[in-house]
Amino acid sequence: MAALTLVSTSTLFLTPPGVYAPQWDTELLTRALCRESVDSSTDVLDLGTGSGAVAVQAARLGARVTAVDISWLSVFTARVNALLARRRVRVRHGDLTTAATGRTYDLVISNPPYVPSPADRIPRGGRARAWEAGRDGRVFVDRLCAAAPGMLRPGGALLVVHSGLCGSDATLRSLEGGGLRASVVDRAEVPYGPVLRSRRPWLVRQGLIGEGDDQEELVVIRAERP
Hints:
The protein is of the alpha/beta class. The chain has helices at 24-33, 53-60, 72-84, 139-151, 168-177, 194-198, 200-205; strands at 3-6, 12-15, 43-47, 64-69, 89-93, 105-110, 152-163, 181-191, 215-224. Helix 1 packs parallel to helix 2 (53-60).
């Protein structure tokens, strides 16, 4: 049975099994989005939209929104949630960074997979595809950093949320190396979820967490194209 999740936007979102449900990182990214100057002239791209929660919020602010996800189930779910919210969102099926080639945007937002994994391969299907991101958690974050300068119009900005476990300093360096002005604009300490709890021994052995750690830092990084 699908779950109904209440997020800070006071909207009920349909999240069937296999679709990433709005969580702490969704809340943090939505909060950062709401601080941006968004209106009817703003073109927004949401990469890895999942349930469509952040895309719908961008539409609620008045933006023209395109949302992308590699999962057909997520594409369908985001379309349904946009209809339920009575907001116009163009939802497309595609890869995290290649679906938007040929266009630029005023604002790109993303909550990509970022959880470090002991597995060498990225899953090609199933629920874990929403969070698994390689041994350092940076497979998708690095791709996003490399692609971001080409997605943004002059003066445009990227908002990306990820765990401190995969290195916010590395993200800042990568974005700045691409010519963007980047900084951490929000952060929060949240309890470990079930995935991190299940791989705690491996994370300790990798030196990513300490024995007594029970909270994860989430960060939102903003990068602007001059």
